[in-house]
Amino acid sequence: MKELINKLEKMNQIAISDLLKKLEAKLDADVFTYYGEIVNGVESQVKDLIETLAKDSDKHRAIYVFLTTPGGSLTPVQRMVDILRHFYEEVNFIVPDYAYSAGTIWCMSGDNIYMNYYSTLGPIDPQVQNKDGNLVAALGYLWCI
Hints:
The chain is of the alpha/beta class. It has helices spanning 2-27, 42-55, 74-87, 102-108, 138-144; strands spanning 30-35, 62-68, 90-95, 98-99, 112-115, 120-121, 127-129, 135-137. Strands 1-2-3-5 form a four-stranded parallel β-sheet, with helices on both faces. It has a two-stranded parallel sheet with strand order 4-6. α3 (74-87) links the parallel β2 and β3. α2 runs parallel beside α3 (74-87) and α3 (74-87) runs parallel beside α4. The mean pLDDT is 90.
């Protein structure tokens, strides 16, 4: 059973890789997918991936970021913006589902944002750490002071 699952995963990886290559050719750009929360430290992995793309002899001048995220920390967003802008002349975002909070800010750093009728960007909800170490909405924290 495990062998069958490994074989199916390998087939999926090949199929996705082929589709991404076709999409890159159609867009005349590199394509990068980010799915998940934006947490501190993730920018290091993004840097490694983008540097690998940048070393490719087929590197394009533009990149499209497929982004789906509930948001997260702004520190990695700023660093990822700097990374993308260092290696690409044009940065575009495609939001197939949602990009909330820090994801919205990341999208706003791009040259273009592409969405469909179902896509959504969310409110920017900065958070601060309270005395107990918990993250709370900055506006709510100001009201409490």
